[in-house]
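Tokens in:
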């Protein structure tokens, strides 16, 4: 669900944004997103990442910096420091109208600005940079051919990404006076650095400079062969999914929503709010998961469905059992993969089933075993797959006891 928002900056300029919210239920976190240098809130990476985070139950604000997109103001009068202030103003807007942001995300120079703004946004517990330089001064390499003209004349029109922009000497002076890396060490917020090793605009060594400057908790994710703008939908959505999974453990709101056992023997606890549709929070013996239903069934597809989780349990148990057997027998097995498909079939189509009428559940496993095994060894591995404890549970008589508790 998207809605247009407008808010006034501390400089009295009207800034334009788009607020993404989950279709059902209250957001599990609030995210502030900063776009790349001379981009707008509608750059593909911003849209795709916002969509991915919203699918995970988070609300996201992406907005145009002063002088860009639909926001007011003159771009030529802006600089890195004014971008940082715009971010602080956007965080104040969220805090006043909705909820203060828990997560800060910045792309390219927007990530560098977010690192600089983070110390002034107390509500944030985690920050992520995507293809960002460690210092604002890095952006000057885009202006190399025009730097001398700008400094001598005080202002010049330059082409960036094929579009003309007026750059003043004050902008150059401002970025040269920044020291973002000095502040990273004292962030006291969880940090995720995402970068592509083939980024041609901001070299991957910049990610290393950010990472080495930060204290733990910090993480690094390679975006493989993605370009700088994450122009492929698969790359930007992957970044959004990874970010959502990583940040969950650092959110106070996630901790509050994480269900705790009602009795000592419980190892798995699942809870959900009625107005959250099918979305549920899962505490699997301290491991945080989220369940949902696909969109075609009325859910938001923010997590695996119950049958997906059941299929995953069968697949995981099968892989563990086969690898354990291979180790025990010292078989030359390198890896095991199990693809599981669940569906319903008519009982009359099942030759080995006792049920004769209606439909039954059918799980189909396809095993891929990498290793130099003989045909007899492979057949034995197939037999061992049926000895997986979850497989046996599904084939045995099971009792589910339920009772109400206060």
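Residues out:
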């Amino acid at each position: 669900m998207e809605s247009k928002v407008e808010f006034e900056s501390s400089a009295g300029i009207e800034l334009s944004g788009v607020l993404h919210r989950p279709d059902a239920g209250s957001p599990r976190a609030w995210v502030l997103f900063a776009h790349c240098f001379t981009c707008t809130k509608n750059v593909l990476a911003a849209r795709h990442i916002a969509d991915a985070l919203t699918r995970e139950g988070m609300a996201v604000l992406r907005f145009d910096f002063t002088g860009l997109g639909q926001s007011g103001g003159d771009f030529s009068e802006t600089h890195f420091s004014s971008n940082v202030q715009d971010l602080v103003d956007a965080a104040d807007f969220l805090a006043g109208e909705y909820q203060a942001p828990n997560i800060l995300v910045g792309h390219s120079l927007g990530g560098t600005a977010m690192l600089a703004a983070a110390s002034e946004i107390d509500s944030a517990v985690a920050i992520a940079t995507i293809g960002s330089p460690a210092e604002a001064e890095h952006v000057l390499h885009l202006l190399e051919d025009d730097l001398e003209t700008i400094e001598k004349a005080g202002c010049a029109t330059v082409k960036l990404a094929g579009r003309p922009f007026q750059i003043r000497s004050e902008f150059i002076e401002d970025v040269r006076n920044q020291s973002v890396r000095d502040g990273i060490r004292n962030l006291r917020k969880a940090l995720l650095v995402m970068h592509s090793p083939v980024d041609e605009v901001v070299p991957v060594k910049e990610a290393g400079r950010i990472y080495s400057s930060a204290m733990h908790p910090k993480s690094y994710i390679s975006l493989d062969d993605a370009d700088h703008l994450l122009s492929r939908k698969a790359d930007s959505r992957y970044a959004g999914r990874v970010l959502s999974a990583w940040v969950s453990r650092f959110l106070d709101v996630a901790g509050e929503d994480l269900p705790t056992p009602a009795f000592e023997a419980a190892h798995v606890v699942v809870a959900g709010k009625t107005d959250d549709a099918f979305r549920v929070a899962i505490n699997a013996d301290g491991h945080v998961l989220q369940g949902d239903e696909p969109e075609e069934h009325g859910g938001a597809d923010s997590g695996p469905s119950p049958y997906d989780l059941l299929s995953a349990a069968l697949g995981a148990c099968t892989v563990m059992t086969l690898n354990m057997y291979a180790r025990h027998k010292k078989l030359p097995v390198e890896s095991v993969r199990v693809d599981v498909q669940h569906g319903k079939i008519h009982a009359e189509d099942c030759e080995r089933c006792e049920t004769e009428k209606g439909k039954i559940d059918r799980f189909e496993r396809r095993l891929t075993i990498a290793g130099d095994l003989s045909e007899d060894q492979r057949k034995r591995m197939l037999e061992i797959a049926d000895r997986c404890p979850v497989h046996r549970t599904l084939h045995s008589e099971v009792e589910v006891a339920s009772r109400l508790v206060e």
